[in-house]
Design brief:
heterodimer, A: about 110 residues, mainly beta, six-stranded mixed beta sheet, four-stranded antiparallel beta sheet, 12 strands, B: about 120 residues, seven-stranded mixed beta sheet
Chain lengths: ~110, ~120
């Protein structure tokens, strides 16, 4: 069965530091992979997506993610975190039944 | 602003109440979805509507009843809910019809935070 795991429930980084949020998936074929961000009191917003081609995907707000098939991972990165990046981040995989399966989310806190 | 509006933002109801959640999208999309987000649990797809027709019911209890009168509006009618139904209910839409957006970009509303007492 398809599944998505975000190992880190909560992460705290200092403003200006680099960020990496982990995402591992379980899927038999080439997956469609997504990262969404949910700011407090807001709905989810798509940061980036991977369908095929270049395994390093650029997204909005300076985020990028790298698809590594050998590790079944799609980690989200940002070189320098801003205080406004504090939010909850969801990794998701498109399944063969057409559903989007979400991970449990990682809460990012940014220290001044 | 994503173009998907949900009302109310917050709702508190007793277990015997009847209430409705409303979702409206101004994007001209053809597909709309209801998701449930419980604390520290993955997002759960509840219902999918394509061109006003329900195409998926993800084993949702009958105390949740969706309605899609047109492609722009989606309702979730609530009746005799349980405390464990307390969650954030998110509406989403997408341009292309699908069975839950395997490869489509979803636009989400801000959600309705529901508390069942």
């Amino acid at each position: 069965a398809q599944s998505v795991t975000q190992p880190d429930i909560h992460i705290t980084v200092s403003e200006g530091a680099s960020l990496e949020l982990r995402c591992n998936y379980s899927y038999g074929a080439t997956p469609y992979l997504f990262w969404y961000v949910q700011s407090p009191g807001q709905g989810l917003q798509l940061l980036l997506k991977y369908f095929s081609g270049d395994t390093l995907v650029q997204g909005i707000k300076g985020f990028e993610a790298e698809f590594k098939r050998s590790q079944s991972s799609f980690n989200l990165r940002k070189p320098s975190v801003h205080w406004s990046d504090a939010a909850e981040y969801f990794c998701a995989v498109g399944s063969n039944t057409g559903k989007l399966i979400f991970g449990q989310g990682t809460t990012l806190q940014v220290k001044p | 602003e994503t173009g998907v509006t949900q009302t109310p933002r917050h709702l508190v109801m007793g277990m015997t109440n009847k209430k409705s959640l409303k979702c409206e999208q101004h994007l001209g999309h053809n597909a709309m979805y209801w998701y449930k987000q419980s604390a520290k649990k993955p997002l759960e797809l509840m219902f999918v509507y394509n061109f006003k027709e329900q195409t998926e019911n993800n084993s949702v209890p009958s105390r949740f009843s969706p309605e899609c009168p047109n492609s722009s509006h989606l309702f979730l009618h609530l009746h005799t809910l349980q405390p464990e139904d307390s969650a954030l209910y998110l509406c989403a839409s997408s341009q292309e019809p699908g069975t839950g957006a395997s490869n489509e970009k979803l636009f989400f509303g801000s959600g309705t935070q529901l508390s069942v007492l």
